[in-house]
Design goal:
By secondary structure, the chain is an alpha/beta fold. 42% of the residues lie in helices and 16% in strands. The protein contains nine helices and eight strands. It has a six-stranded parallel sheet. The longest helix is centred in the C-terminal third of the chain and has 22 residues. It starts with a helix and ends in an 8-residue tail after the last helix. The structure holds pyridoxal-5'-phosphate. The site of pyridoxal-5'-phosphate has 14 residues, from strand 8 and helix 9. GO terms for molecular function: pyridoxal phosphate binding.
Length: 235
Amino acid sequence: MSSLIAAKLAAVQQQIQEIAAHCDRNPQSITLMPVSKTVAPETIREAIAAGYPLLGENKVQEIQSKAAALADMPHQVHLIGHLQTNKVKDVIGLVSCVQSVDSLKLAKKMQQRLEFVDSHLDILIQVNTSGEDSKNGIAPEQALDLIDAVCAFERLSIKGLMTIGANTDNEEAIRACFRQLRQLQIAAQHKYGAYSDFAVLSMGMSADMKIAIEEGSTLLRVGSAIFGARDYAAS
Ligand SMILES: *Cc1c(COP(=O)(O)O)cnc(C)c1O
């Protein structure tokens, strides 16, 4: 018996295969990460059971409360929402990656905490490629300087870059965001000469997945296409 969630995941995966084939990309190079914010643990369990143990969440408190409910199922969580410096101590140990590092102040706080608990953490640098005020992320012009500074924090391992596409129906505007992230990745790889580093490009959600794949995404953060429209009132 396959669940509704398993069927949705299979459908999204099928789309990924088709889009990848169209733009000559290996679908294996693209990871589908279900975004389970506001989704109940029982439903999240279905996604993990269907073979998707890497989840995206955007709130520290929600990650804490779900950790217990999902403790018996091996899985990993990436923080994809804004992280306040006073929440750093709460999230370390609960996530395998923070995708939303966008300031030196935050990186410094994370480094200090990781030293204190003697641990390491993977991160992505979040870039505000759309320039929308409502979005977090470092300005593209400042991204390389931030990467430079964060490289000095040996407890943090920069795996790549993350962005959220422009909130518009204009495909070209969305594409420009993703293309800019890819350009920054290339610039960073050039600068540090290590092509295995900065390999992750976290970009693309339910509505702009196709454009993101065409522009080189390696990590899709997909929520509503899997779990349906979010019910914020219930969470
Ligand atoms: C909610 C969220 C997503 C998923 O959005 P959908 O449109 O539901 O696919 C992806 N990335 C971030 C940062 C989010 O907050």
